[in-house]
């Protein structure tokens, strides 16, 4: 690409941008999505806790907030969407626990709020239930014996945000959207008819811009002075626990005060601190710190005493991007810029994953409002088939797959039982980096964190892409993980 | 050989697996298979190109590949069937094994006995929860060793090594010889984690700074490691404010401990010792599951491969006699427990009827001590360290001193008067 013309340019290939691209692919409109990273969903999307909730447990959720309405509208869309795109989705329900009488006020308040919203905004949601100590302990025998009661929300679900995002981008592409990675927007100028967008790889001319740049949404908006909002990134620490602890709980478990532990769709446990007790961070700074990590672990142990520091296999810090920190931490920015016509800011708030499908629909409406002409795409195919995941197959399916392609008989990653066949397939589907492969089919996600499979995946990636092994990167850019060839340093 | 007729299936073809398979064959097991996930026999020995192997077992100073080669030849000569690039994905408590491979497809069979010899893996950054960013350039020392010695790549040229385990110190020397600069070896404990010979030959001889009671408090760099912050730690191993020092580097190697790889064992219902991370075994190396034996680093992490080989031979021999007799071996009834300054003792139980070697480690370094095995025997030692495994031989004669009703023997490391 050195010069490109398109009707709509979506900036950002996270869950927001990919959802919008896929929504636009239902129409005949010339659309391009650019993502600066080497893969999709690798910004704040990948740091998501994967939980989909309608916010009854979050007191800052209110009917007058745009973000709350997006989440409520998005929740019922999520399960059918995951089905169409062949990505995992599981309804696990949540248990919000309390250990003291004062804390019991919170579940009662939750129940009240939920019933106020129910008819108007959440027609499909199942009712919440107050739940006593005995039932709690019979459902979840491994939680702290100090609980006195809580509330059960059967609507809570989990998925895999990165796989969802990759699937959305693939489906959008399959339906005619121009999807480009490793393309970073560095400047935008406004013309009367068109925007001129400067990227690291040439110029894009477009009539409409959708700014879905995640944590960089302000940076992009500032390029054309369309930043009529202030965003606050709130640090969200999460720890990942070994799969052998996966069976400790079946529901997402959280405390009315702080702390949360949830099963993940892949059988690990996640733990984190509720955003209520998180701290303000700096854009781009995803570093973990000891204080957050220690607090999160302590809170997790208050919920489930059997969790120990020895079981942590990884940890990370994501952001929740809020519009207005003073009023709460709840508002999103999905709107036409007040100052720049045909420029739409699409920054979804918390929980972002389940707001995305509804936000995408709204962005399309906003584009129409700004003058975009839309005709239905008669060839739109909502279905996308996922690549096979060996470890999830039955014995018979495994046998068949190996017979068809022996590379599925070569297990490259011990911890997650990932085969060479899957890695090759992930590369065929667009993975270009070690992280790209890891987020598609999980080698390196397990307890040894790529100690065993790292060299082997590097080799396969280099072979398939026909590049030297030392050019393989972790996540694009300068993230090469082997800097020199043997003896090269001695020649210097 | 038909898989349905297998007497002994050995899982893993590193030093432990090869020794166990050879011994099983020698002890009369007819059909022995070794299942190995890698392309060749030998396990991690291939990447250990330094010397120091075989001093006890062969009374010779060999490199890792040389040591491996002696066993590989024997495996090939004795008619053991190696199943390479074969990953065992499940073992059940009635010894049904499921595995996959390119050539063999999806395999299910039920050997008469099993030897677990999967070795161990390295602790990672995630397990340590080191604060900071998440760039490329953070590797465990063993993975770096594979890249340098087998694949032919150097991860970077300014290296910091966290942890003073043996592989870390050996990689400090190796990378220095390859032209990289090792800026520091950083150890959180007040003493070195690996063997003294590695401390001297790999670190001090190359003038590499070693910082004890220090840790990496922060990792910096977005795409690739750019620096680490090193800090001194207090007695709770927490960084002391004001002692931080930023060291520029492009690579952080971790040599912070090894964990026996027992995920398959757990599937089979094998009970583990929380201290060793390996199976609970008796002197035959039989685990809590009848007919499943274990040896080498999957049982407890050794510091010398020679001991891995000897211990696994025991497991192989027992597996062979179990397969032959098809009746459970009698389990040892006398429990061994670590007492003062003894972290663990393997095996966990003995019969008291035959010669036995006890393997053990201390909790912390101590000088002028004696190891006291209940009332059976004592052995005076000048110095003991957690990094160096202790081996105590008990003869049948000595064991006769045990009372008839003895249920438990406590092993203590006692201070003694000395010069």
Walkthrough of the structure:
- The complex is a heterodimer of chains A (492) and B (419).
- Chain A has 492 residues and is α+β, with helices and mostly antiparallel strands.
- Chain A has 3 domains: 222 residues, FAD/NAD(P)-binding domain; 146 residues, D-Amino Acid Oxidase, subunit A, domain 2 (D-Amino Acid Oxidase, Chain A, domain 2), CATH 3.30.9; 93 residues, Arc Repressor Mutant, subunit A (Orthogonal Bundle), CATH 1.10.10.
- Chain A is built from 13 helices and 22 strands.
- In chain A, the strands form 4 sheets. In chain A, strands 1, 2, 9, 10, 11, 12, 18 and 19 form an 8-stranded mixed sheet that branches. An 8-stranded mixed sheet of chain A has the order 6-7-5-14-15-16-13-17, sandwiched between helices. A 3-stranded antiparallel sheet of chain A has the order 3-8-4, covered by helices on one side.
- In chain A, helix 2 crosses helix 8.
- The radius of gyration of chain A is 23 Å and the shape is globular.
- Chain B is of the alpha/beta class.
- In chain B, the strands form 8 sheets. A 5-stranded parallel sheet of chain B has the order 5-2-1-9-21, with helices on one face. In chain B, strands 11-19-13-14-15 form a 5-stranded parallel sheet.
- In chain B, helix 6 links the parallel strand 14 and strand 15.
- In chain B, helix 1 packs parallel to helix 2, helix 4 crosses helix 5 and helix 5 runs parallel beside helix 6.
- At the A-B interface, strand 17, helix 9, helix 12, strand 22 and helix 13 of A face strand 7, strand 8, helix 3, helix 4 and strand 12 of B.
- Strand 22 of chain A pairs antiparallel with strand 12 of chain B.
């Amino acid at each position: 690409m050195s010069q490109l013309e398109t009707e709509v340019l979506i900036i950002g290939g996270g869950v927001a941008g990919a959802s919008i691209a896929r929504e636009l692919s239902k129409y005949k409109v010339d659309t391009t999505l650019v993502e600066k990273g080497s893969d999709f969903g690798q910004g704040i999307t990948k740091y998501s806790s994967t939980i989909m909730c309608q916010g009854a447990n979050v007191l800052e959720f209110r009917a007058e907030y745009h973000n709350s309405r997006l989440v409520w509208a998005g929740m019922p869309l999520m399960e059918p969407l995951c089905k169409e795109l062949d990505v995992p989705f599981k309804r696990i329900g949540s248990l919000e626990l309390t250990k003291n009488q004062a804390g019991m006020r919170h579940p009662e308040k939750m129940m009240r709020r939920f019933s106020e919203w129910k008819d108007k905004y959440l027609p499909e949601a199942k009712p919440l239930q107050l739940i006593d100590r005995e039932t709690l302990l019979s459902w979840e025998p491994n939680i702290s014996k100090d609980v006195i009661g809580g509330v059960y929300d059967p609507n809570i679900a989990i998925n895999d945000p990165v796989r969802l995002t990759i699937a959305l981008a693939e489906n959008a592409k399959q339906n005619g959207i121009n999807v480009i990675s490793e393309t970073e927007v560095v400047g935008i100028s406004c013309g009367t008819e068109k925007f001129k967008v400067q990227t690291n790889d040439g110029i894009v001319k477009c009539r409409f811009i959708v700014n879905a740049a995640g944590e960089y949404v302000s940076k992009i908006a500032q390029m054309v002075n369309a930043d009529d909002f202030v965003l606050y990134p709130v640090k969200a620490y999460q720890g990942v626990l070994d799969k052998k602890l996966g069976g400790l709980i079946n529901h997402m478990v959280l405390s009315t005060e702080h702390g949360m532990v949830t099963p993940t769709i892949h059988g690990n446990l996640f733990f984190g601190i509720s955003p209520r007790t998180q701290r303000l961070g700096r854009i781009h700074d995803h570093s973990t710190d000891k204080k957050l990590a220690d607090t999160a672990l302590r809170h997790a142990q208050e919920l489930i005493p059997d969790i120990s520091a020895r079981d942590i296999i990884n940890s990370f810090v994501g952001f929740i991007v809020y519009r207005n920190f003073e009023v709460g931490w709840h508002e999103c920015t999905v709107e036409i810029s007040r100052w720049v016509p045909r420029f739409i800011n699409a920054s979804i708030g918390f929980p972002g994953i389940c707001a995305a499908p509804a936000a995408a629909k709204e962005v399309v409406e906003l584009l129409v409002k700004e003058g975009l002409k839309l005709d239905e795409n008669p060839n739109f195919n909502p279905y996308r088939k996922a690549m096979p995941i060996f470890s999830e197959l039955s014995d018979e399916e495994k046998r068949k797959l190996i017979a068809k392609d022996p590379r599925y008989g070569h297990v490259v990653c011990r911890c997650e039982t990932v085969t060479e066949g899957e890695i090759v397939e992930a590369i065929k589907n667009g993975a270009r980096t070690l992280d790209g492969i890891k987020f598609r089919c999980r080698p390196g996600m397990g307890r040894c964190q790529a100690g065993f499979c790292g060299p082997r995946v590097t080799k396969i990636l280099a072979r398939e892409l026909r590049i030297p092994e030392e050019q393989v990167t972790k996540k694009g850019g300068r993230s090469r993980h082997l800097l020199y060839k043997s003896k090269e340093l001695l020649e210097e | 050989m038909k898989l349905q007729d297998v007497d002994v299936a050995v899982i893993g073809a590193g030093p432990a697996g090869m020794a166990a398979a050879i011994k099983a064959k020698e002890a009369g097991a007819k059909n022995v298979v070794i299942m190995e996930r890698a392309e060749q026999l030998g396990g991690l020995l291939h990447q250990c190109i330094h010397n120091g192997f075989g001093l006890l077992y062969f009374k010779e100073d060999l490199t890792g590949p040389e040591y491996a080669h002696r066993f590989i030849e024997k495996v090939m000569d004795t008619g053991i069937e190696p199943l390479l690039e074969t990953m065992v994905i499940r073992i059940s408590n009635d010894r049904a094994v499921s595995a996959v491979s390119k050539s063999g497809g999806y395999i299910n069979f039920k050997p008469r006995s099993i030897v677990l010899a999967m070795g161990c893996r390295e602790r990672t950054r995630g397990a340590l929860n080191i604060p900071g960013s998440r760039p490329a350039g953070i590797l465990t020392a063993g993975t770096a060793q594979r890249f340098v010695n087998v694949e032919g790549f150097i991860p970077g040229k300014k290296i910091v090594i966290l942890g003073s385990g043996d592989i870390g110190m050996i990689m400090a020397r190796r990378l220095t010889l390859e032209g990289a600069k090792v800026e520091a070896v950083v150890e959180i404990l007040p003493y070195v984690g690996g063997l003294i010979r590695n401390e001297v030959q790999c670190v001090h001889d190359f003038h590499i700074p070693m910082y004890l009671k220090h840790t990496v408090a922060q990792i910096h760099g977005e795409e690739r490691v750019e620096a680490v912050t090193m800090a001194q730690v207090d007695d709770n191993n927490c960084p002391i404010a004001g002692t931080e020092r930023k060291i520029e580097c492009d690579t952080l190697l971790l040599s912070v401990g090894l964990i026996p790889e027992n995920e398959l064992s757990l599937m089979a219902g094998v009970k583990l010792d929380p201290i060793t991370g390996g199976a609970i075994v008796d002197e035959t190396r039989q685990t809590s599951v009848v007919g499943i034996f274990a040896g080498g680093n999957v049982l407890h992490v050794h510091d010398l491969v020679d001991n891995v080989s000897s211990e696994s031979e025991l497991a192989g021999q027992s597996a062979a006699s179990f397969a032959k007799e098809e009746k459970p071996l009698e389990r040892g009834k006398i429990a061994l427990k670590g007492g003062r300054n003894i972290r663990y003792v393997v095996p966990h139980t003995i019969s008291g009827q035959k010669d036995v070697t006890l393997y053990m480690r201390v909790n912390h370094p101590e000088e002028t001590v004696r190891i006291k095995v209940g009332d059976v025997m004592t052995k005076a030692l000048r110095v003991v360290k957690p990094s160096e495994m202790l081996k105590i031989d008990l003869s049948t004669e000595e064991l006769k001193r045990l009372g008839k009703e003895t249920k438990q023997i406590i092993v203590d490391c006692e201070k003694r008067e000395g010069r």
